[in-house]
Design goal:
The chain is 57% helix and 7% strand. With 152 residues, it is mainly alpha-helical. The chain has one domain (8-151): Orthogonal Bundle (Arc Repressor Mutant, subunit A). Strands 1-2 form a two-stranded antiparallel ribbon. Helix 2 crosses helix 3 and helix 4 packs across helix 5. The radius of gyration is 18 Å and the shape is globular.
Length: 152
């Protein structure tokens, strides 16, 4: 079936979202570095992303970050050594879960402020009403973001 219109020519939605995520990562890394957290890498941003990992199982974080369990455990060890998070069991003999430290929560606060600033910039660029519609559409797509957040 032939489609005419805005969605019929590249770049398509996957590329547009990937490019947007690239901008988000660059902005987040710049923001945390400006605040003195220059040791955080793009891969490690998953540990500071919504929904936040407080109480999350490492395997859940690995799935969300699209990383192997081995790669994620290496990343968690680095972040734990740097004081951003701790891994602890809720009860003796239980599985360890990931918890942000106060240092990790500072990074989250910086990231949230940077995302609000970016959203404000993008809403000025395309118009507040259109940007609000864009956010609403993203929140209602398959693989619903809010459903993922509710299970964490």
């Amino acid at each position: 079936m032939k489609r005419d219109g805005i969605g019929s020519q590249p770049p398509y939605v996957g590329a547009l979202l990937r490019m947007s995520v690239g901008i988000v990562r660059k902005r987040l890394l710049g923001a945390v570095a400006r605040h003195g957290f220059s040791d955080i890498t793009a891969a490690q941003l998953a540990a500071f992303s919504y929904p936040f990992p407080d109480g999350l199982k490492p395997t859940e974080l690995a799935a969300r970050a699209n990383q192997s369990k081995q790669a994620l455990n290496h990343m968690l060890a680095e972040l734990e050594d740097a004081g951003y998070l701790i891994r602890k069991a809720e009860k003796a003999g239980g599985r360890r879960r990931v918890y942000l430290t106060s240092k990790g929560r500072k990074v989250v606060t910086i990231c949230q402020a940077e995302m609000i600033a970016l959203q404000d910039e993008w809403s000025v660029r395309v118009g507040r009403r259109q940007f609000d519609i864009f956010l609403d559409v993203l929140r209602h797509m398959p693989g619903d973001i809010s459903a993922d957040a509710e299970t964490s």
